Amino acid sequence: MALSPLQSRLAASLLASLFVFVLYFLVCSPQFAAAEELQFGITTNDDTHHDRLPQLYESDFPQFDRSIIGRVPSSFTSLINNVASDTNVPINKTSLFVFEISSVTTREEQNNIELRGEDTAGTTIAARQSRRTLYISANTCQQPKRKGTDKTVEVPQLILFVSNSTDNTSPGPDQPPGKQRRLVFEEGAIVYNTTLTSDIYFSVFAPIVAADQFDATSTPYSVQVAASIDQPYHSYSNEHRAELVWIDSDASATLFTTENVTSSPSESLNTPPYVMFAQNRNDMSINGMRNSYCGLSRWAQMRQLDDGKSRIKTGLKLDRATSMLKQEFYLNGLNSSSKYMGFLASNQEVGSKRNVPGGGGTVFRQTDFETKPDGACTVIFNLTLCDGLQYAAPGNSTLFPSSESLAAFYDNYTQTMYANFDKALQQVACDAPPEGQWSLVRNCTDCRRAYKDWLCSVSIPRCEDFSSIDRPNLQMRNIKAPFANGSFVDQALLNKYGDNLAYTSSRNAVIDEQVQPGPYKELLPCDDVCYNLYQSCPSALGFACPVPANPGFDTSYGRRNPDGSLSCNYQGSANNIPSAATLSFAAPRLGLAFILVGLTFVLL
After folding, report:
1. Which residues, 6+ apart, have CB-to-CB distance to 292 below 8 Å?
2. Could you tell me if 277 and 167 lie in one domain?
3. Which percentage of the chain shows pLDDT scores above 70?
4. Which residue, of 343, 370, 397, is where some domain finishes?
5. Residue 435 class from Cβ within 10 Å (0-12 exposed, 13-18 middle, 19+ buried)?
6. Which of 483, 477, 460 minimizes the C-alpha distance to 374?
7. Rounded to the nearest 5 degrees, what angle is found at the Cα of 450, between the Cα atoms of 446 and 451?
8. Residues 97 and 170 occupy one common structural domain
9. 580: which DSSP letter?
10. Are residues 179 and 162 in the same domain?
C-alpha cells in the first residue's frame, strides 16, 4: 500500500531520529567508548581475555553490583599495591592470589596502552606501560615445628606459582609447567618480578611434610604475601649491601657495629636505621626462615620485644676517624663457648604504616660469631679518650661485675697517663714556625694522635681466653695467677715460662694489681702503631720501638697479615672486616701503650 505524502514525511523523520539516537550511543557514550577501547587496549597471552573485561573497568560502574559486571572468584585473595596479606596455608594446599591491573591503572592509561601516539618526551605511552614491573614477594612467618630426636632435618620450603594467562587463573602444582612459573622459597623468602600488562594470578603452595618429623597440625605454614609496582615489599640479600661487623665477644656478651649509616659528616640521623636478630646455632627453629623478616621478628631467640626487655641494645655512634655515624649493637645474656648467627635487617614499618613500599623488611646476609669460655675477658666500649677502642679487655667479674665498671677503670687510667704525656709535650715548641719545629711533615697534633692510639692499644690489651689455640701474635700473660675457679695453668707451662716476665705478668702492671684477671692471652698490638708514634713525636721525648727478630719484639708487638685479617691489635680492630672494595668507612688508625719513667718512654 502506497504511503501518503504526510505518512512518508513522518516515516522519514522517525528513521532520521532513530539513526541519530543510535549514532549517539555508538559515538558519544563514555561507557561504550571505554569498553570498545579496552577491547583493543589489553594484551594477554590468549584471545579469550574479553570474558574478563568487566574486571578491568568495574570502577567506572559504581552503581552496579559486582555480581552483574563480574568478580574475582571467592577462593582468591585480591591484593592491593603495597598491602600485605597474612594467611595460613594448610599442608598440601594452595592459597590463591590475584593482582588486578585495574587496581593501579586509570581508565585513561588503560585506553592508551596500545595506542602509538607519542607523548611530549617523544616516547610512546605503550612503551611506558610495558616497562611497568610488578614485584611479587612473600615471607614465611611460621613453619611446622620439628619433632623427634633429629632436629637437623630441613623444613620443606613453600612454593610460589605465577601465571599471567587467563588459561591458568589457578596456578599450582596440578597445572602444566608451560603455563606458569614455579619458584621455591629460599630460607623462607621469595622475590619475583614480572611485566604488568594484565591481571597476574599466583599462589603459595605448602608441600607435604613427614608426619614423624614435623608437627603440621598445631603449627602449619603461615605466610605474608604482597605485590608492589614500586619495589619488592619484602627483600633479602646474600650479597654485600649492608653488613654487621663483629667486633668481639666475651663469655656472655658481644659487640657489633655497622658500616657508616650516613654518607657525609654534615648528614644527621635521629633514628637508628637497622634492627638485629640473633640465634644460637644449636637451636634450629629459625632454619628455613633465615631470609624472612617476618619469621625472624617472630621466632628469633634475640629480637626486638614489645616490652622493651630485648637482650639487644642499639644506638648511634660518631666515628671520630670519618666524622660519620655508625650503628652499634650490644648483645648480652649469651651462653659461653657458643656459636651464634647474627642477622642485620631494615624495615620501613613505623607504627601503623606497615603498608608502604618495602614495608615487609629487608634481611641482609648472615654473620656468624661466637662467645668465649668463662674467663678473664670482658667486652668494653664507649670510652672517652680511647673512643676507637671496642673489644674484650682483661677483666674480673667479681671486682668489675659489669662492662661499664671495667670500661670506667680503663678510661680513668688512660686519661691520667695521657695527661702526663701532654705535660711533657708542652715543653716542646709546638707553636714555633715550621723552620723551628722538629719535623717538616709532623706536628704536635700528629704526635698527640699517634700517642693516644699507641697508649690505648697497649695499656688496654685485647684479651683472648687462655684456652684459645696458640697462633702468631697471641701472647700468654699472667700465667702464675689462679683462674677464676681457683685452678692454675698446667705445671709444664709454669716450668717452661715461669721465669719469663712477659709470660708471668700483664704488659701493664696496674692490670695485675687492680683488675686481677688471672691467666689470659693478649693479641699483641701492631708494630706499625709504635713506628707511627716514633715518627710523629719529637726525639726529645725518648720514644723507641723494638726491632723484629730482636729480643722482646715477639712478646711485645705483632705484624699485620697481608690479607687484612685480624692478626694484631689496633683501635677500630674487629673480628670480621668486609673486604676493602666494600668498605664505606676509612681504614682504622692504630694504637699501643707505654710505661712512663720520668720523661723516658719504654715502648714494650
Report:
1. 139, 140, 141, 187, 188, 189, 234, 236, 363
2. no
3. 76
4. 370
5. exposed
6. 483
7. 115
8. yes
9. G
10. yes
Residue 130 one-letter amino acid: S
Q: How confident is the model at residue 135 (pLDDT cuts 50, 70, 90)?
A: very high
| 214 shares its domain with 87 | yes
Q: Provide the CATH number for the domain around residue 303.
A: 2.60.40
Residue 433 DSSP label: -
* Residue 496 Cα distances to 109, 283, 454, angstroms: 85, 42, 30
Domain boundary among 311, 343, 370: 370
Q: Order of strands across the sheet with 474-477?
A: 462-464, 520-523, 474-477
Q: Is 582 helix (H, G, I), strand (E, B) or coil?
A: helix
Per-residue pLDDT at 496 exceeds 50: yes
Determine the structural domain holding residue 184 and report its residue range: 76-231
Give me the phi and psi of 341, to 5 degrees please: -115, 135
The least confident of 237-251, 370-384, 489-503 is 237-251
Q: Are residues 183 and 261 in the same domain?
A: no
Q: How far apart are CA 121 and CA 126, in angstroms?
A: 13
**Residue 582: inside a domain:** yes
Based on its alpha-carbon atoms, the radius of gyration of the chain, rounded to whole angstroms, reads 35
pLDDT of residue 349: 52
Measured distance CA(5)–CA(10) in Å, rounded = 9
In the numeric block, the cell 650503628 is attached to 327
Q: Show the beta-strand stretches assigned E in 395-519.
A: 462-464, 474-477
Counting the structural domains of the chain, the total is 3
Answer yes or no: do 94 and 219 share one domain: yes
Length of the chain: 604
pLDDT, residue 172, reads 96
User: What residues contact 412, with CB distance under 8 A and at least 6 apart?
Assistant: none
| Environment class of 430 (CB within 10 Å of its CB; exposed 0-12, middle 13-18, buried 19+) | middle
Does one domain contain both 428 and 458?
yes
> Which residue type sits at 162?
V
Our measurement of the distance from residue 365's CA atom to the centroid of its chain's CA atoms, rounded to an integer in Å, reads 7
31, part of any domain = no
More confident residue, 403 or 68: 403
The whole-angstrom separation of Cα 235 and Cα 243 is 15
Task: Return the CATH number at 96.
Answer: 2.60.120.380
Q: Tell me, yes or no, whether 105 and 203 share the same domain.
A: yes
Cell numbers for 191: 622475590
Burial 98-107 (b: 16+ CB within 10 A, else e): bbbbbbbbeb
**CB atoms closer than 10 angstroms to residue 2:** 5
Whether residue 148 is contained in a domain is answered as: yes
In a domain, 61, yes or no: no
